[in-house]
Amino acid sequence: MTIQKYILQEYFELYMSDVEHLAPASVKKYVSAISKCSDFLRQKTMIKDTLYEVADITQLKNLRDILLTDEEFYALNSRGNHMYSAGFNKYIKFAEGENFEAINDAIAPLYKPFPKTKTPTLTSTAKWTRNHILRQQVIKLADYKCEINPAHQSFIAENTQKPYMEGHHAIPMKYQEHFSYSLDVYANIICLCPICHRKIHYGLKNDRHEMMNQLYEQNSSKLIKSGIEISKTEFANLDI
Q1: Distance (Å, rounded) from C-alpha 203 to C-alpha 196?
Q2: How far are the Cα atoms of 37, 68, 75, 81, 167 from residue 71, in angstroms, in the given order?
Q3: For residue range 173-186, what is the model confidence (pLDDT) as tens digits?
Q4: Within a 10 A sphere around the Cβ of 88, how many other Cβ atoms?
Q5: Per-residue burial over 2-13, b = 16 or more CB atoms within 10 Å of its CB, e = otherwise
Q6: From CA 235, how far away is CA 240, in angstroms rounded?
Q7: Is the entire prediction scored with pTM above 0.85?
Q8: pLDDT of residue 103
Q9: CB–CB of 39/78 below 8 Å?
Q10: Quick check: 180 and 227 in contact, CB under 8 A?
């Protein structure tokens, strides 16, 4: 069975090797653990292919809880010195963006091109993949600060106990057909306060144009590293 390699899988592996600087053997151990957990869940028809397809933290945690209470998996995990649960927990911490606020420029090796993929739907067409986990990670990377103006204030969200922020695709996913590589990547997701997020969609044309110019100046180098090529004029005139 050939399983598609997901963006979260590549980000996880790159994060461990290039940001955490884990030894190749350690990275391989964690990747193998996720593979084994995926095999177990797939056999029980709880996922389609792999844990990396799951785009919601709550669902990931629910799957972990199911595994840890399954007698067959418990026995397997015990024989493996709990390496499978350790790998799952490691991945969840990554998906949650643990310590992402302190990473800053260390995330640079993760700006790279990724193939664009579609998510199957119940209709005859498929939609371009969007991953909620990536948006939440980017918000943590920005340390819950608006990328238009870090001084912008927002209310405190109950689930994070941090200022409420929103993830915004700088180049909307509806333009994916026009690009060779995925737009659902760190480089193309921006952390915005709720007011700026609404403003960039519904504000005055001149205000939106100014915001787009600013975002281009701040993020164009990341986009280029991720294989996303677009001129400043094209970017500023996108239909957001």
Answers
A1: 9
A2: 14, 8, 6, 15, 39
A3: 999 999 999 999 99
A4: 24
A5: eeeebbbbbbbb
A6: 10
A7: yes
A8: 85
A9: no
A10: yes
Inter-residue contact 68 to 37 (CB < 8 Å): no
Q: Within its chain, how far is the Cα of 69 from the centroid?
A: 28
Structural tokens at position 204:
């005055």
DSSP of 158-181 = TTTSSB--EEEESS-GGGGGG-SB
Find tokens 């915001």 and name the residue. 211
Over the stretch 53-66, which tens digit does the pLDDT of each residue have?
999 999 999 999 99
Task: Provide the 3-class DSSP secondary structure of residue 191.
Answer: strand
Q: Which of 219, 211, 153 is nearest to 189 (CA)?
A: 219
Gap between the Cα atoms of 38 and 67, Å rounded: 10
- How far is 108 from 202, CA to CA, in rounded Å? 32
Determine the Cα–Cα distance for residues 41 and 44; give it in Å rounded to an integer: 5
Contact 27, 17 (CB under 8 A): yes
Tokens 């991953």 identify what position? Answer: 131
| Continuous segment of H or E residues that includes residue 199 | helix 194-202
**What are the contacts of 67-76 at 24+ separation with CB within 8 A?**
67/37, 67/40, 67/41, 70/40, 72/40, 73/40, 76/36, 76/40
